[in-house]
Fold each of these.
Amino acid sequence: MPTDPIKERVFRALDTFAIEIPSWGFANTGTRFGKYIQAAAATNIEEKFADAAEVHRLTGVTPTLALHVLWDLPNGVADAPKIQALVEKTGIRAGSINPNLFQEAEYKYGSICNPSAEIRAKATAHLLDSVAIGKALGAAEVSMWVSDGSNYPGTQSMRRRIGWMKEALAKTHAALAPGQIMLVEYKPFEPAFYHTDIADWGMALELARSAGPQAKVLVDTGHHYQGTNIEQIVAWLIELNALGGFHFNDRKYADDDLTLGSIDPYQIFRIFHEILFEQSKGGAFKSPAFMIDQSHNLKGKVEAMVQTVVTAQELYAKASLVDQDTLAKLQDSCSLVDAEEAFRGAFWQDVRPLLAEWREARGLPAHPLAALRESRYVERITEERREKNAGGGSSYA
Ligand code: AOS
Ligand code: ZN
Ligand code: ZN
Ligand code: ZN
């Protein structure tokens, strides 16, 4: 049987591709103006695991669920056995553990960067508890988004807060199990609107480095100013062995948390290209954690999650079509138009038929969204959860 090199390349890429889905993607969310209640939204952790299992059944590439400590394990590490039971029941493993340093009123002026030593200690204890949860569940990453910052110039000492942050991160790092990774996420603004304590990848990188070797940077694609060359940041982080993972989503204006690839699919393709370029060199590169961080306020949640996963696979498959050797030669000879054509030519390929073939070869539904509709899963959970959501649903479930 003649082998098809294109198909082989795409299949090889797809076989190693997995993406983590967030528990908060199944719960009721909204905007700062109000919450949009969906009858089918998950109202508790059992339902979140059930939704995750359905997405995994349909796509085969979402074996882990990111957990949010405050929302999913309100009693901290004491809730780990309950989660473990759900892992066993559904076959979905615990993914990244996300501490919550932003919701409690006490954190109004900051958590680990708060001028109050007492509040800093409380926030640090929460980070240590998150590490303990990760250990109990065998979760690979503790994923930290620190929302600390200030709204007005002169109201906080940026310098002293750097010191407090370093102290808390070092303590957290010291508690990690071997192999456990601490991810440091950055974001330029929101909820703070003058200064954010970890505002960009340079700050995140320096903080990760000062915390220790198991700390890496997390790139959320929605956390950059307009026009930022995100793939260049990714290239640098790979170069520095500091890329820990991604929070994928898309945006038009700020941290919009829209469906990956809905606004600018070429950008995700370019990011994947940097990963695949490094992989093609055949070294010891450990692929970063691919995670989804989206809030579907208007779309149906399970449907949107399946659509996201499928889109991520399509863009990854497209990026795998870039012929690295050919591209390198064209770059060396500065054949600009041909190099660009070799690059964007891969982007313009329709890989959907190949994806359907790959899925069938792996015993998965060829068309996950159609299979979701046929299963009537959404109709079923809508009926089951309607009552529970009628009163407004619990916040973030
Ligand atoms: C917030 O903007 C960050 O993207 C967080 O990573 C994320 O949305 C959050 O951790 C969910 O709480
Ligand atoms: Zn994020
Ligand atoms: Zn965000
Ligand atoms: Zn985001």
Amino acid sequence: MRAATEALIVIDVQNDFCPGGALAVAEGDKIINRINGLMDDFVVTVLTQDWHPANHSSFASNHAGKAPFETLTMSYGPQTLWPDHCIQGTAGAEFHPDLRTDPAQLVIRKGFRPAIDSYSAFFENDRSTTTGLDGYLRARGVTGVTFVGLATDFCVAYSALDAARLGYRATVLLGACRGIDLGGSMAAMTAQMRAAGVALED
Ligand code: VGL
Ligand code: ZN
């Protein structure tokens, strides 16, 4: 069992990010057994859940003439456009049925504001609108955070970078993550995490 100051943050292990889902990550379901086991090692366990309204601005379908995986400039900067995914209340937004959810003390839902996407578990994509997770972790005395889940190069990486910026010791267990790899994003985000002092382990 890890110290009570260590938190496991399980990012977006939802049906839409697993094979058969709307924004499937290759082998997204292969990490679930390991994540389930890790939950027994941590006192503090948090799950995140991508949780979009149907009119969400990150969906290509909400922009005439735009296709998934194209980029659009939003008020807060460039935003990749995605297929409709993780729509609130749908089966695709549910956690994968094999993921243990009982050990988690907190579920952070993110991406619920139509006008702004939220990759990170800490901040939306403007990098300033908070999800409340930092306050929760600080209130529980957490100083170290370990990330697992989907997708390595988007929600996991943004979360880990924010954690490092906020002063947490941040670790990503790459073997318990899978990535989308869009336009070299795996290499780019891995390099950014390493440069920010995020520990990248298997
Ligand atoms: C994610 C793209 C869009 C993720 C969420 O969980 O990495 N990626 N929404
Ligand atoms: Zn999303």
